[in-house]
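Subject: Protein record for review, amino acid sequence with backbone structure tokens
Category: Structural biology, sequence-to-fold work with a learned token vocabulary.
Format: Residues in single-letter code; tokens as whole numbers, each standing for a residue.
Body of memo: The sequence and its backbone structure tokens, given next.
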Amino acid sequence: MRVLLFTGKGGVGKSTVAAASAVRAARSGRKVLALSTDSAHSLGDALGVEVGSEPTEVESGLFVAQVDAQRRFERSWREVQDYLLSVLDAAGVDQIAAEELTVLPGAEEVLALLELRDQARSGRWDAVVVDCAPTAETLRLLALPEALGWYMDRVFPMERRLMRTLRPVLGKVAGVPMPQDRVFGAVERLHQELVEVREVLTDAGSTVRLVLTPESVVVAEARRTLTSLALYGYRVDAVVANRVFPSGGADDWRAGWVEAQQAQLAEVRASFAPLPVHECGYRDREPVGADDLADLALATYGETDPLAEPATDEPMTVERSDDELVLVLALPLVDRTDVELARVGDDLVITVGGYRRVLALPSALRRCAVAGAGMRDGRLRVRFEPDPQSWRPA
């Protein structure tokens, strides 16, 4: 199963490139679903069709759908919301205000992930091409499964046991209804669904593709995105440089843009190596409709298959070296000074820039102490050695 997610800064043509890639893949004989998780609904605009929540066939082999956040909300969060509404009603909160207050923060991002999981595991498609929200929303979306997993593994069981014990007393003292087991069960189901989402997104057949325009601000954000995606364990397989000005016959004004773009493209090739960088020239008109998008895909990818599975390394590995174990995590475009590490129990907390990952250590490392860390060839290497205070021979 091939899953390809497109993301990039808003306005770089991400939806158009995603749609073009889906058209090209479908016309090569695959059954492809182009799925939009972006509330802007630009995917349908690029294809020139109306897009609904159910997959609709645009042409032979190509289906399109837009995530219906409200429908997914009803299926996945209704029991929890009903409980929260009862609490707010007991507290005298207006019903309309209560409805607003009980909407799950980031609900659209969460529910988009669940729809992607369902479609990827349905067996209906050879490939799912995802037009993601702009970069910041995508990063929050992709960080959710592991972040909620940490809470569910360490905090949630304790809260549930405590509530079972104190529910009769607290209900009388507080004067508001206490959550029943079915509410906790709904949260557990959501957690399990997000575990399955991460399994889909970290599969070897799932990759992210960055779309950018050759401008300094856009390229800088794309570099940070590459690092952040690697931090959370996701594979990036290529970069698409969109809207590149042709160099031939340029007047003085366009010649300036050509020169500036070429400088940025050189930076992109150097920064993102060894990832392939596909260039797409500025078109003489806006590409709308399947035929225009097929031409755009040909100009971008040439004769190569846009959905070919790349030979990417595992995002995280554990190596044995002499008397040490070494945790190796891909972190491209990062200096050692950009990384903060902390060991908290069985977790390793890794902070890069404004992003943090709480990484549950593999079992082989939990009884070891951190001996040191360093960056080499775009990879963070954290050395562990047996801890005499906790090590017990089998």
User: Anything to note?
Assistant: Confidence is low (pLDDT under 50) at residues 169-173.
